[in-house]
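Board notes (copied after class):
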Amino acid sequence: MSDDAPPDRLSSDPRSPFFNEELLRRGIGIRFKGEERTNVEEYCISEGWIRVAVGRTLDRRGNPMTMKINGPVEAYFRDAKAG
């Protein structure tokens, strides 16, 4: 197995300094507290949190409202899991 691991922190928001379109296009899977999550907007493995959208609520700038949830986070590349 190679040293091909997802970054410690990644965001799907293009305005974030942690945004990386190439990695997002490749496909990142998130396991949070042992459960697969598909609605993660941003994550940080070392700090142990994910940020998820809260329903369809929008903030004053028209972006989805998010909530930060603490717990163990595991990130992986979806293409690596298939192989």
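Comment from the instructor: Residues 9-78 form one domain. The chain has two helices and seven strands.
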